[in-house]
Write a structure and sequence with these properties.
The chain is mainly beta. Helix content is 9%, strand content 46%. It is built from three helices and 22 strands. It has an 18-stranded antiparallel beta barrel. It has a three-stranded antiparallel β-sheet with strand order 7-10-11, with no helix packed on it. Strand 8 and strand 9 form a beta hairpin. The longest helix is centred in the N-terminal third of the chain and has 22 residues. The radius of gyration is 55 Å and the shape is elongated. The N and C termini lie far apart (128 Å). The relative contact order is 0.07.
């Protein structure tokens, strides 16, 4: 028992010694004394008065000057009364409670956060410490941009604002669809790179003069018209094809059965350096009109006239100058005429081919107006050198024109010209033909849904009558088309023709007027009707005629 008590006492004594060691570590000199370069301990001396402090500071400044950085503000500024020694104490260290102790000196900020706070206070205009040194004024800012300026993205202007202030947009499904501008126009059929727009018109015509002749009789005709328009959908170049066919057959009254048709194709190639190549090819077939200048006595039916045409041309723009050159060929072929007493009468002596070349030069005075001058020279060659009367009718043709092209967009466009045309025959017994020429092809839209057209031509016509050279025909047509409603369209037209026979005082005058309406039941089907009046008067005997007709039918389009 006594041995255990002695062991406990010994253990407690050792623990007490170990715990008391750290408490007296400062007194025991565990950190060691601060010595100088010779190993002697340094002794701290407190200055007796302020003069001694100033002497000590002066000595310290003489020994080593303060470090001055190249950039102001890199290190905190040192106060004027700072001690030179690392271990020096403030002046009031002897008696912290002395009555004559001065105010505590503000220490400079020593951390980055403190320096930033002090800088913000200075910028905000707060009161600075009394002993804070005055900093040099900041250098003036050079506003010249020397770095890269950040630019907006490419789609910045078109990007919608999706911020909290942006207006709320309605759902796409809830928006009201925009109405079509022309809801009854044909949609067309895609065929390769072309868009086809076919239409079919079927109806009945009641007329007072079935063949528009001087002795024509009334009849009721079944009339069918098929039309086709094809337009290319190319990035460059363009091509169009227009075709039509008309078939008329008598249901009652005077016997009539005729076919009229035609096709016209155009191609434009956009070449380099503002140059364009133009090509055209056409074909037309129809019965010869009863108002033709060639009178065939004793015929039951007028002969059929077929016309083949083709042309090639180049157009070039050089600054404001416009140059154009083209060549064309027109072939006219007549069928035999059926005689009233039976048999036929050949019309081969009327078959001919016209080769014509033209040169046009214009100057664009403004984007809307281009005055031009044009000259033409052609040669008409008949298949038979001599006709049935023994005349040699092949001839040379010429024309000189001056006019202006108008281009005001969809509002107004076209061209109008005037000049002189003439024709001289190979046979000296036939007198030459010459006359003033007027031509026009204008299109005007005074208001939306209204189109006014004006067409005028001057043409030289041949003849097979013995001793007659031919005639000059002036023709003009004025038309107005109006869209009264989205599904109701109407048109009205008036035409005039004047034929002057060369070498005589004879002449012909034809007047015509027509009007029509089309009411569309839907985009594809409509009801149509037309009224037409035509009169023809001539100084020649047995040529006058009057025709009135009414057409009612159904039109289908795609």
């Amino acid at each position: 028992m006594g041995a255990r008590i002695c062991a406990l006492l010994a253990t407690a004594s050792v623990a007490a010694v170990l715990c008391a060691g750290p408490v007296h570590a400062q007194d025991a000199g565990l950190r060691g004394a601060v010595t100088d370069d010779q190993g002697k301990p340094l002794k701290r001396k407190r200055p007796a008065d302020a003069s001694q402090d100033q002497a000590t500071d002066a000595d310290t400044q003489n020994q080593a000057e303060d470090y001055q950085p190249a950039s102001p503000g890199a290190v905190p500024d040192k106060p004027a009364n700072a001690s030179a020694s690392l271990f020096s104490e403030p002046p009031n260290a002897d008696d912290a409670f002395a009555n004559d102790a001065g105010p505590l000196q503000a220490l400079p900020p020593t951390t980055a956060r403190d320096r930033a706070k002090a800088r913000r206070e200075q910028l905000a205009g707060r009161q600075q410490p009394a002993n804070a040194p005055k900093k040099a004024p900041a250098p003036e800012q050079d506003e010249t941009t020397t770095g890269t300026v950040r630019q907006q993205t490419v789609d910045f202007e078109g990007r919608e604002d999706n911020g909290p202030e942006s207006a709320r947009q309605a759902a796409i499904e809830g928006r009201k669809p925009q109405p079509e501008l022309n809801p009854y126009d044909p949609t067309g059929i895609r065929f390769g790179t072309f868009v086809l727009k076919p239409s079919l018109e079927q109806g009945v015509t009641a007329t007072s003069n079935a063949d528009s002749s001087s002795d024509g009789k009334s009849a009721i005709l079944s009339e069918t018209t098929l039309r086709l328009n094809a337009a290319s959908d190319w990035d460059s170049h363009s091509a169009t094809v227009d075709a039509y066919g008309n078939f008329r057959k008598s249901v009652s009254g005077q016997e009539v059965k005729d076919v009229t048709g035609g096709i016209d194709g155009r191609l434009q190639l956009d070449l380099a350096e503002d140059m364009r190549a133009l090509a055209r090819l056409g074909y037309n077939v129809r019965p010869e009109s009863a108002t033709s200048p060639v009178v065939i006595i004793g015929t039951a039916e007028r002969p059929t006239l077929q016309t083949f045409s083709g042309s090639l041309g180049l157009e070039k723009d050089v600054g404001k100058l416009r140059f154009g050159i083209s060549g064309e060929a027109v072939k006219e072929s007549y069928g035999d005429a059926a005689l009233s007493g039976g048999g036929t009468l050949s019309q081969k002596d009327r078959n001919s081919t016209l080769y014509n070349g033209r040169l046009r030069i214009g100057y664009e005075v403004s984007p809307a107006l281009t005055p031009f001058g044009e000259i033409q020279f052609g040669r008409r060659i008949y298949d038979l050198r001599f006709d049935t009367a023994g005349f040699e009718r092949s001839a040379n043709q010429f024309a000189a024109l001056a006019g202006v092209e108008i281009d005001m967009g969809e509002k107004f466009g076209g061209e109008i010209s005037a000049g002189w045309v003439g024709q001289t025959f190979d046979d000296d017994r036939l007198g030459s033909i010459s006359a003033a020429s007027v031509a026009a092809d204008l299109r005007w839209s005074p208001m939306r849904g209204t189109i006014v057209t004006l067409n005028g031509t001057t043409s030289l016509e041949g003849s097979t009558s013995a001793g007659e050279s031919g005639s000059v025909l002036y023709a003009a047509r004025l038309g107005v088309e109006r869209q009264m409603r989205a599904n109701l369209t109407g048109f009205a037209a008036a035409g005039i023709g004047w034929r002057d026979y060369a070498g005589s005082t004879d002449h012909d005058l034809s007047l015509s007027a027509e009007a029509g309406l089309t009411w569309w039941l839907n985009r594809y089907t409509g009801l149509t009707g037309r009224l037409r009046h035509e009169t023809f008067s001539s100084t020649l005997s047995n040529r006058d005629s009057t025709t009135n007709s009414v057409f009612v039918g159904v039109k289908v389009q795609r």
